[in-house]
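Following up on my earlier thread - several people asked me to post the actual chain instead of describing it. Fair enough. Here it is, all 401 residues.
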Amino acid sequence: MSHRILYFAMVLLYVPAINTETFIGRTIKKWIHTSFGIDMNEPFINKPFNPTIQNLNVVTLVPCGDQYQPEDEISSSVSELACTIDQQTLPEQALLAIPDKITGSQNYWQVNTGLDAIKTDETIFVYSRGYAGAAKPAATSDKKKGGICAIPKQGGGVVVCSQWLKNSIINGTCVVFDYPDTRSYFDFGLNNDKQCLELIYDNIQDKTDNIVFFGNCRGAKALLTYLSRSRPQEVKGVILDAPFMDLDQFTQEIGKNYGKIVPFSQKIAKKIITKWYPNYRKKDDLTYSDLKRIPKHIPIFIGHLKGDALVSDKMMQNMVKALRDSGHTVYLLVVDDKTKSHSRLYQTKPFQQAANAFLKKHNLPHDVTLAQEGHAMLGHAKHTALNVDKWKSGFVHVFKA
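Reply from S.P.:
Thanks for posting it. Predicted structure:
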Protein backbone atom coordinates (compact mmCIF):
# COMPACT_ATOMS: atom_id res chain seq x y z
CA MET A 1 0.00 0.00 0.00
CA SER A 2 2.82 2.46 0.88
CA HIS A 3 4.47 2.03 -2.53
CA ARG A 4 1.12 2.64 -4.25
CA ILE A 5 0.70 5.92 -2.33
CA LEU A 6 4.27 6.93 -3.23
CA TYR A 7 3.56 6.19 -6.90
CA PHE A 8 0.46 8.41 -6.97
CA ALA A 9 2.31 11.21 -5.14
CA MET A 10 5.09 11.17 -7.74
CA VAL A 11 2.53 11.07 -10.57
CA LEU A 12 1.00 14.28 -9.19
CA LEU A 13 4.37 16.03 -9.39
CA TYR A 14 4.36 15.48 -13.16
CA VAL A 15 0.90 16.97 -13.69
CA PRO A 16 1.53 20.35 -15.42
CA ALA A 17 -0.87 22.18 -13.09
CA ILE A 18 0.94 20.83 -10.01
CA ASN A 19 4.58 21.39 -10.89
CA THR A 20 7.30 20.97 -8.31
CA GLU A 21 7.60 24.71 -7.59
CA THR A 22 3.97 25.39 -6.65
CA PHE A 23 2.84 25.29 -3.01
CA ILE A 24 1.10 21.95 -3.63
CA GLY A 25 4.19 20.59 -5.38
CA ARG A 26 6.49 21.65 -2.53
CA THR A 27 4.08 20.11 -0.02
CA ILE A 28 4.03 16.79 -1.90
CA LYS A 29 7.85 16.76 -2.13
CA LYS A 30 8.16 17.46 1.59
CA TRP A 31 5.68 14.67 2.40
CA ILE A 32 7.57 12.18 0.18
CA HIS A 33 10.82 13.11 1.93
CA THR A 34 9.28 12.84 5.42
CA SER A 35 7.35 9.63 4.76
CA PHE A 36 9.74 7.74 2.49
CA GLY A 37 13.16 9.32 2.92
CA ILE A 38 13.38 10.26 -0.78
CA ASP A 39 14.72 13.78 -1.35
CA MET A 40 12.89 15.19 -4.37
CA ASN A 41 15.16 18.27 -4.27
CA GLU A 42 18.32 16.22 -4.83
CA PRO A 43 20.31 17.86 -7.64
CA PHE A 44 21.66 16.07 -10.70
CA ILE A 45 25.41 16.42 -11.28
CA ASN A 46 26.43 15.45 -14.79
CA LYS A 47 29.85 13.90 -14.28
CA PRO A 48 31.23 10.34 -14.50
CA PHE A 49 31.40 8.10 -11.46
CA ASN A 50 34.78 6.65 -10.57
CA PRO A 51 34.37 3.87 -8.00
CA THR A 52 37.01 3.29 -5.33
CA ILE A 53 37.24 0.97 -2.34
CA GLN A 54 36.64 4.05 -0.16
CA ASN A 55 33.66 5.66 -1.87
CA LEU A 56 31.88 2.30 -2.18
CA ASN A 57 32.18 1.77 1.61
CA VAL A 58 33.73 -1.66 1.03
CA VAL A 59 33.92 -3.83 4.15
CA THR A 60 34.85 -7.47 4.68
CA LEU A 61 32.81 -9.46 7.22
CA VAL A 62 34.69 -12.40 8.71
CA PRO A 63 32.78 -14.94 10.87
CA CYS A 64 34.23 -15.32 14.37
CA GLY A 65 32.94 -18.89 14.82
CA ASP A 66 30.08 -20.50 16.75
CA GLN A 67 31.95 -20.59 20.05
CA TYR A 68 33.28 -17.05 19.96
CA GLN A 69 32.48 -14.84 22.95
CA PRO A 70 33.81 -11.26 23.05
CA GLU A 71 35.76 -10.26 26.15
CA ASP A 72 36.83 -6.63 26.01
CA GLU A 73 35.51 -5.91 22.54
CA ILE A 74 32.30 -3.91 22.24
CA SER A 75 30.03 -5.20 19.49
CA SER A 76 27.78 -3.06 17.29
CA SER A 77 24.28 -3.70 16.04
CA VAL A 78 23.60 -3.53 12.31
CA SER A 79 22.02 -0.07 12.56
CA GLU A 80 24.93 1.24 14.66
CA LEU A 81 27.40 -0.09 12.13
CA ALA A 82 25.45 1.50 9.27
CA CYS A 83 25.54 4.82 11.11
CA THR A 84 29.33 4.72 11.45
CA ILE A 85 29.60 4.03 7.71
CA ASP A 86 27.23 6.92 6.95
CA GLN A 87 29.21 9.26 9.23
CA GLN A 88 32.54 7.95 7.91
CA THR A 89 33.66 7.04 11.42
CA LEU A 90 33.99 3.26 10.91
CA PRO A 91 37.27 2.07 12.50
CA GLU A 92 39.60 -0.26 10.62
CA GLN A 93 38.13 -3.12 12.66
CA ALA A 94 34.82 -3.50 14.45
CA LEU A 95 32.64 -6.30 15.79
CA LEU A 96 29.14 -6.91 14.45
CA ALA A 97 26.58 -8.88 16.47
CA ILE A 98 23.77 -10.61 14.53
CA PRO A 99 21.15 -12.61 16.47
CA ASP A 100 20.70 -16.22 15.35
CA LYS A 101 17.25 -16.62 13.80
CA ILE A 102 16.63 -19.98 15.50
CA THR A 103 18.39 -19.83 18.89
CA GLY A 104 18.33 -16.08 19.42
CA SER A 105 21.96 -16.13 20.55
CA GLN A 106 24.44 -13.66 19.11
CA ASN A 107 26.71 -14.57 16.20
CA TYR A 108 29.73 -12.33 15.81
CA TRP A 109 31.43 -11.05 12.66
CA GLN A 110 34.68 -9.14 12.47
CA VAL A 111 34.14 -6.04 10.35
CA ASN A 112 37.21 -4.89 8.41
CA THR A 113 37.38 -1.86 6.14
CA GLY A 114 38.52 -2.67 2.62
CA LEU A 115 39.62 -6.09 1.45
CA ASP A 116 42.83 -6.71 3.40
CA ALA A 117 41.18 -9.32 5.66
CA ILE A 118 40.66 -11.76 2.77
CA LYS A 119 42.84 -14.85 3.06
CA THR A 120 44.55 -16.50 0.13
CA ASP A 121 42.41 -19.10 -1.67
CA GLU A 122 39.41 -18.91 0.69
CA THR A 123 35.88 -18.78 -0.72
CA ILE A 124 34.58 -15.21 -0.73
CA PHE A 125 30.91 -14.28 -0.87
CA VAL A 126 30.13 -10.92 -2.49
CA TYR A 127 26.76 -9.31 -1.78
CA SER A 128 25.21 -6.98 -4.40
CA ARG A 129 22.35 -5.01 -2.85
CA GLY A 130 19.19 -3.51 -4.28
CA TYR A 131 18.28 0.16 -4.51
CA ALA A 132 18.62 2.21 -1.33
CA GLY A 133 16.11 5.02 -0.89
CA ALA A 134 16.77 6.30 2.65
CA ALA A 135 19.07 9.27 3.16
CA LYS A 136 20.06 8.05 6.65
CA PRO A 137 20.32 4.66 8.43
CA ALA A 138 17.41 3.45 10.56
CA ALA A 139 18.97 4.55 13.85
CA THR A 140 18.79 8.17 12.70
CA SER A 141 15.57 8.04 10.70
CA ASP A 142 12.05 6.67 10.98
CA LYS A 143 12.32 2.94 11.74
CA LYS A 144 8.76 2.39 10.56
CA LYS A 145 9.67 2.90 6.94
CA GLY A 146 9.80 -0.31 4.95
CA GLY A 147 11.15 -1.64 1.68
CA ILE A 148 13.66 0.48 -0.20
CA CYS A 149 12.90 3.39 2.11
CA ALA A 150 14.46 1.52 5.05
CA ILE A 151 17.73 0.90 3.20
CA PRO A 152 20.24 3.75 3.66
CA LYS A 153 22.36 4.90 0.74
CA GLN A 154 25.46 4.73 2.94
CA GLY A 155 25.70 1.47 4.89
CA GLY A 156 22.74 -0.13 3.12
CA GLY A 157 24.86 -3.04 1.94
CA VAL A 158 25.59 -4.05 5.52
CA VAL A 159 21.94 -3.57 6.55
CA VAL A 160 20.50 -5.97 3.95
CA CYS A 161 23.43 -8.39 3.90
CA SER A 162 22.95 -8.93 7.64
CA GLN A 163 19.60 -10.57 6.80
CA TRP A 164 21.31 -13.02 4.43
CA LEU A 165 23.83 -13.76 7.20
CA LYS A 166 21.07 -14.13 9.78
CA ASN A 167 19.25 -16.61 7.56
CA SER A 168 22.42 -18.69 6.97
CA ILE A 169 22.48 -18.13 3.21
CA ILE A 170 25.96 -16.62 3.29
CA ASN A 171 28.26 -19.03 5.10
CA GLY A 172 31.72 -17.52 5.15
CA THR A 173 33.76 -14.37 4.66
CA CYS A 174 31.62 -11.79 2.87
CA VAL A 175 32.43 -8.58 1.01
CA VAL A 176 29.77 -5.87 1.22
CA PHE A 177 29.63 -2.45 -0.45
CA ASP A 178 27.29 0.38 -1.43
CA TYR A 179 26.34 1.28 -4.98
CA PRO A 180 26.04 5.01 -5.80
CA ASP A 181 22.28 5.53 -5.46
CA THR A 182 22.15 9.28 -5.94
CA ARG A 183 20.30 10.89 -8.84
CA SER A 184 23.61 11.61 -10.49
CA TYR A 185 24.78 8.00 -10.72
CA PHE A 186 21.92 5.50 -10.35
CA ASP A 187 21.37 3.69 -13.67
CA PHE A 188 19.31 0.57 -12.89
CA GLY A 189 22.09 -1.99 -12.69
CA LEU A 190 23.94 -0.96 -15.84
CA ASN A 191 27.29 0.69 -16.52
CA ASN A 192 28.01 2.42 -13.19
CA ASP A 193 27.08 -0.70 -11.24
CA LYS A 194 29.14 -2.86 -13.60
CA GLN A 195 32.16 -0.66 -12.85
CA CYS A 196 31.61 -1.20 -9.12
CA LEU A 197 31.51 -4.98 -9.51
CA GLU A 198 34.59 -4.92 -11.75
CA LEU A 199 36.52 -3.06 -9.05
CA ILE A 200 35.46 -5.50 -6.33
CA TYR A 201 36.14 -8.59 -8.43
CA ASP A 202 39.54 -7.40 -9.68
CA ASN A 203 40.75 -6.68 -6.14
CA ILE A 204 39.47 -9.99 -4.73
CA GLN A 205 40.85 -12.01 -7.63
CA ASP A 206 44.37 -11.02 -6.59
CA LYS A 207 43.90 -13.21 -3.51
CA THR A 208 41.46 -15.96 -4.43
CA ASP A 209 39.68 -17.41 -7.44
CA ASN A 210 36.79 -18.80 -5.34
CA ILE A 211 34.10 -16.12 -5.59
CA VAL A 212 30.34 -16.49 -5.08
CA PHE A 213 27.96 -13.65 -5.93
CA PHE A 214 24.64 -12.96 -4.21
CA GLY A 215 22.18 -10.24 -5.19
CA ASN A 216 18.58 -9.10 -5.06
CA CYS A 217 16.45 -6.80 -7.26
CA ARG A 218 18.70 -4.13 -8.83
CA GLY A 219 21.74 -5.88 -7.28
CA ALA A 220 20.72 -9.07 -9.09
CA LYS A 221 20.29 -7.21 -12.39
CA ALA A 222 23.69 -5.55 -11.90
CA LEU A 223 25.22 -9.00 -11.54
CA LEU A 224 23.60 -10.20 -14.76
CA THR A 225 24.92 -7.09 -16.54
CA TYR A 226 28.41 -7.59 -15.14
CA LEU A 227 28.55 -11.33 -15.80
CA SER A 228 27.38 -10.94 -19.40
CA ARG A 229 29.54 -7.94 -20.35
CA SER A 230 32.71 -8.38 -18.28
CA ARG A 231 32.57 -12.21 -18.33
CA PRO A 232 34.62 -12.93 -15.17
CA GLN A 233 36.08 -16.44 -15.13
CA GLU A 234 36.74 -17.07 -11.43
CA VAL A 235 33.12 -17.12 -10.27
CA LYS A 236 31.98 -20.41 -8.72
CA GLY A 237 28.28 -19.65 -8.34
CA VAL A 238 25.57 -16.97 -8.38
CA ILE A 239 22.42 -16.72 -6.23
CA LEU A 240 19.79 -14.18 -7.32
CA ASP A 241 16.58 -13.05 -5.62
CA ALA A 242 14.09 -11.29 -7.96
CA PRO A 243 16.35 -10.22 -10.84
CA PHE A 244 14.72 -8.18 -13.59
CA MET A 245 15.61 -7.29 -17.16
CA ASP A 246 14.97 -4.01 -19.00
CA LEU A 247 13.26 -0.91 -17.65
CA ASP A 248 10.34 -1.17 -20.10
CA GLN A 249 9.16 -4.44 -18.54
CA PHE A 250 9.91 -3.19 -15.02
CA THR A 251 7.84 0.00 -15.39
CA GLN A 252 5.05 -1.98 -17.04
CA GLU A 253 4.70 -3.96 -13.80
CA ILE A 254 4.88 -0.77 -11.70
CA GLY A 255 2.08 0.80 -13.72
CA LYS A 256 -0.02 -2.37 -13.73
CA ASN A 257 0.28 -3.09 -9.99
CA TYR A 258 0.56 0.37 -8.42
CA GLY A 259 -1.36 2.63 -10.79
CA LYS A 260 -4.21 0.65 -12.26
CA ILE A 261 -6.64 3.57 -12.33
CA VAL A 262 -4.15 5.98 -13.93
CA PRO A 263 -4.45 6.18 -17.76
CA PHE A 264 -1.20 5.31 -19.57
CA SER A 265 0.24 4.29 -16.21
CA GLN A 266 3.20 2.36 -17.62
CA LYS A 267 4.32 5.29 -19.79
CA ILE A 268 3.93 7.67 -16.86
CA ALA A 269 5.97 5.39 -14.59
CA LYS A 270 8.79 5.22 -17.13
CA LYS A 271 8.72 8.99 -17.69
CA ILE A 272 8.96 9.63 -13.94
CA ILE A 273 11.85 7.22 -13.50
CA THR A 274 13.88 8.32 -16.52
CA LYS A 275 13.38 12.00 -15.68
CA TRP A 276 14.41 11.47 -12.08
CA TYR A 277 17.37 9.24 -13.02
CA PRO A 278 18.72 10.69 -16.30
CA ASN A 279 21.80 8.42 -16.17
CA TYR A 280 19.66 5.56 -17.47
CA ARG A 281 20.16 4.89 -21.19
CA LYS A 282 17.79 2.57 -23.01
CA LYS A 283 20.47 1.59 -25.53
CA ASP A 284 22.61 0.26 -22.66
CA ASP A 285 19.85 -1.82 -21.07
CA LEU A 286 20.11 -5.55 -20.53
CA THR A 287 18.65 -7.86 -23.20
CA TYR A 288 17.91 -11.57 -23.23
CA SER A 289 20.64 -12.07 -25.82
CA ASP A 290 23.13 -10.55 -23.35
CA LEU A 291 22.48 -13.44 -20.98
CA LYS A 292 23.94 -15.88 -23.49
CA ARG A 293 27.36 -14.28 -22.95
CA ILE A 294 27.55 -15.20 -19.27
CA PRO A 295 30.35 -17.80 -18.90
CA LYS A 296 28.75 -21.24 -19.15
CA HIS A 297 30.69 -22.75 -16.24
CA ILE A 298 28.95 -20.48 -13.69
CA PRO A 299 25.89 -22.17 -12.10
CA ILE A 300 23.00 -19.78 -11.45
CA PHE A 301 20.27 -20.14 -8.81
CA ILE A 302 17.26 -17.82 -9.10
CA GLY A 303 14.46 -17.26 -6.59
CA HIS A 304 11.16 -15.84 -7.85
CA LEU A 305 8.09 -14.80 -5.85
CA LYS A 306 4.95 -15.97 -7.64
CA GLY A 307 2.96 -12.90 -8.64
CA ASP A 308 5.82 -10.50 -7.85
CA ALA A 309 4.54 -6.94 -8.25
CA LEU A 310 7.70 -5.80 -10.06
CA VAL A 311 9.02 -8.91 -11.81
CA SER A 312 6.29 -10.70 -13.74
CA ASP A 313 6.13 -14.47 -14.11
CA LYS A 314 6.49 -13.91 -17.86
CA MET A 315 9.68 -11.88 -17.47
CA MET A 316 11.15 -14.58 -15.23
CA GLN A 317 10.09 -17.29 -17.68
CA ASN A 318 11.86 -15.54 -20.56
CA MET A 319 14.97 -14.87 -18.49
CA VAL A 320 15.39 -18.48 -17.39
CA LYS A 321 14.56 -19.75 -20.89
CA ALA A 322 17.33 -17.58 -22.37
CA LEU A 323 19.83 -18.96 -19.86
CA ARG A 324 18.68 -22.54 -20.33
CA ASP A 325 18.69 -22.40 -24.12
CA SER A 326 22.23 -21.01 -24.18
CA GLY A 327 23.56 -23.97 -22.19
CA HIS A 328 23.77 -22.57 -18.67
CA THR A 329 23.26 -24.59 -15.51
CA VAL A 330 20.28 -22.76 -14.04
CA TYR A 331 17.83 -23.43 -11.21
CA LEU A 332 14.52 -21.61 -10.69
CA LEU A 333 12.81 -21.74 -7.30
CA VAL A 334 9.26 -20.32 -7.39
CA VAL A 335 7.75 -19.49 -3.99
CA ASP A 336 4.15 -18.55 -3.24
CA ASP A 337 4.04 -16.38 -0.11
CA LYS A 338 1.43 -13.64 0.16
CA THR A 339 3.19 -12.17 3.21
CA LYS A 340 6.35 -11.33 1.25
CA SER A 341 7.01 -8.52 -1.19
CA HIS A 342 9.46 -8.10 -4.06
CA SER A 343 13.06 -9.28 -3.42
CA ARG A 344 12.40 -10.59 0.08
CA LEU A 345 12.57 -14.32 -0.67
CA TYR A 346 15.76 -14.62 1.38
CA GLN A 347 13.44 -14.37 4.39
CA THR A 348 11.59 -17.57 3.44
CA LYS A 349 12.52 -21.09 4.46
CA PRO A 350 12.26 -22.63 0.96
CA PHE A 351 14.75 -20.09 -0.43
CA GLN A 352 17.17 -20.62 2.47
CA GLN A 353 16.97 -24.40 2.11
CA ALA A 354 17.27 -24.58 -1.68
CA ALA A 355 20.03 -21.94 -1.82
CA ASN A 356 22.12 -23.95 0.65
CA ALA A 357 21.45 -27.14 -1.32
CA PHE A 358 22.71 -25.28 -4.41
CA LEU A 359 25.89 -24.27 -2.56
CA LYS A 360 26.45 -27.86 -1.42
CA LYS A 361 25.79 -29.20 -4.93
CA HIS A 362 28.59 -27.02 -6.27
CA ASN A 363 31.04 -27.69 -3.42
CA LEU A 364 30.71 -24.27 -1.81
CA PRO A 365 30.43 -23.39 1.92
CA HIS A 366 26.89 -24.08 3.15
CA ASP A 367 24.71 -24.74 6.17
CA VAL A 368 24.62 -28.53 6.49
CA THR A 369 21.10 -28.78 7.94
CA LEU A 370 19.49 -26.35 5.49
CA ALA A 371 21.27 -27.98 2.54
CA GLN A 372 19.93 -31.39 3.54
CA GLU A 373 16.41 -30.00 3.93
CA GLY A 374 16.63 -28.32 0.52
CA HIS A 375 18.01 -31.25 -1.48
CA ALA A 376 14.65 -32.24 -3.02
CA MET A 377 13.71 -28.57 -3.56
CA LEU A 378 16.85 -28.01 -5.60
CA GLY A 379 15.87 -30.95 -7.80
CA HIS A 380 12.47 -29.36 -8.37
CA ALA A 381 14.17 -26.00 -9.10
CA LYS A 382 16.29 -27.67 -11.75
CA HIS A 383 13.22 -29.34 -13.27
CA THR A 384 11.35 -26.03 -13.25
CA ALA A 385 14.17 -24.30 -15.13
CA LEU A 386 14.27 -27.07 -17.73
CA ASN A 387 10.50 -26.84 -18.26
CA VAL A 388 10.02 -23.11 -17.72
CA ASP A 389 8.38 -22.62 -21.12
CA LYS A 390 5.62 -24.98 -19.96
CA TRP A 391 4.75 -22.70 -17.02
CA LYS A 392 0.99 -22.66 -17.69
CA SER A 393 0.92 -26.42 -18.23
CA GLY A 394 1.72 -27.13 -14.59
CA PHE A 395 5.36 -28.13 -15.09
CA VAL A 396 6.56 -25.37 -12.75
CA HIS A 397 6.69 -26.51 -9.12
CA VAL A 398 5.57 -23.73 -6.76
CA PHE A 399 6.60 -23.97 -3.10
CA LYS A 400 4.37 -22.65 -0.35
CA ALA A 401 6.38 -20.73 2.26
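Residues 140-146 have pLDDT under 50 and may be disordered. That should answer part of your original question.
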